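Recap from last week: sequence in, structure out.
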Amino acid sequence: MSSGSQIATYLAPESTPGETPDPATWDTLRLTGNTLTPNVSTEVSAEKRETRMQGGSIITSLDYSGDLAGEMSAGTFDKLLEAAFYGTWTTDVLEIGADRHTFTIVKAFKDIGVYSTFKGVHIGAMQLDIPEEGKVTCSFTGMGLGYEDGETDPTAAGTVNPQTTTVAMGSATSVGDILVDGATLAGEACISALSMSIDNTLQTQRCLGKAGPGALIATSANVSGSLTMAWSKAAWNQWKKMLTREAIGVSFPLTDAAGNEYTFELPEIEIDGELPDGGNEDIVQVSLNYTAKNTPIKVTRVLV
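Predicted structure tokens:
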């Protein structure tokens, strides 16, 4: 029998995709969920049998994927952010690029002594959610090149860093002034909820004689999301830009009580959304979807 509280996740950056460093340095991740798993694709035999029974199936492909979900906090997900952006932190600035970062990730069921190891894990997508009320959450979709499991702890021979201890961020206490085209809309058209996703459109290269991926190749970086804005004349002025496809710029900081800060900048986004409606006792808000274009998005961090 096993308890969910005894599932631990360890991450080690790789120098060569699919090869675990020896010795490795492992980060113990702070997660709310880890759905990494092998996925088997099969094809059932079409042979006719005298018994009328099916003839079983063959494996056509293997994939290794899942989501690493957590609550946003300073210093906890910096390596995963770097991999999701396909960029490299340079003087604490990270932007969408073409730098591949891969990991070996161990999913440990500690109370029963079973360890699942995913190698060559790429971050194919990420999601950041800032709700109207609640915790700021994030998730990273991993796709791996290989998998093995057993009863020997893969982290035992390396160095294991403990979990970070920074405070989780919340929508009421951690979100600073959200700027639209460099100006705050506070008092005119406040933003009450915001999300951002990056999809690296990861493609799987199949190779004959190999069930798992031969390679994972990033293609277009598709950045999109949504924002909810209090309806006002200022909000209308932004909303109507969808009719001309005029881009707007949005930036928002996430901070904690210690002074750690991450500022996300989306220099050019196109928005879409319907005119809002509301009942007698409703606050009128407009829900907008957006897609980033042309200029790479970036995040700047300040760690204290």
